[in-house]
Amino acid sequence: PQGAEEARAFVSAFLKRSMPKKEDEAIQDVLTRKAVVLEHYSKKKAKPQRRKAKGFTAKQRRELRLFEIEPEQRRYAIFLPLHELWKQYIRDLCHGLRPDTQPSVVQSKLLKADLHGAIITVAKSKCPSYVGITGIILQEFKHVFKIITKEDKLKVVPKLNNVFSLEIDGFVSYIYGSKFQLRASERSAKKFKLKGTIDL
Prior knowledge:
alpha+beta; SH3 type barrels; 5 helices; 28% helix; elongated; RNase_P/MRP_Rpp29-subunit; ribonuclease P RNA binding; phosphoprotein
C-alpha cells in the first residue's frame, strides 16, 4: 500500500495530466473546496452513414422477368385454392355476407379490397373480343388485369373501356375499369363514388 505522501504525489501528477489548462494553485483550490470533475477531450467519431438498400429498377425487374408466370404454372386448377382464400378474405372483410347486408357496403369494401384471387368477367367492352372473358385474377397492375381462364389461358385485359362483374355469395358488383386505373396498393386511400356512369 502507498503512503500518504506517495498517494498525494500520485494524485497531484494525475491531475496535472488530466487538467493541463489549469495552474497548480487552481488545482489545489479545487482539491480543498469541492469535488474534482476531470475533463476529458475526446475526438468525436464520425457516424458511419447508413446506406439505403436499393431495390431493383423497373427496367431490371423486366429484364429479370420477376413478375412473369412460367408457362407450366398457367393452369386454372392451381389457382382455385387462391380463389377460396380470397372468398374467405372478403367474407371476413364484410363481417359475413348475409342476405340483409346492404349492397353499397359490399361494393365499397370490394373497391378497396385486394382482388388477387377473385373471379371476374368482362361484362361490357368497347372491344367485343373481350366480352365474356372470365377467370381468376393473378396479377393486377395500374392499367391491366392478368387473369387465368378455365381453358388455362393467361389473358391480359386492359381496365380502360371495360366493365367487369364480380360475384361472391350472390352479390354481384360491377367495376368500371376506366375509373379503376390505380395500383392495388393505392386503392385503399382512394375515395370512389358509388354512382353509375355512361362512360365505359
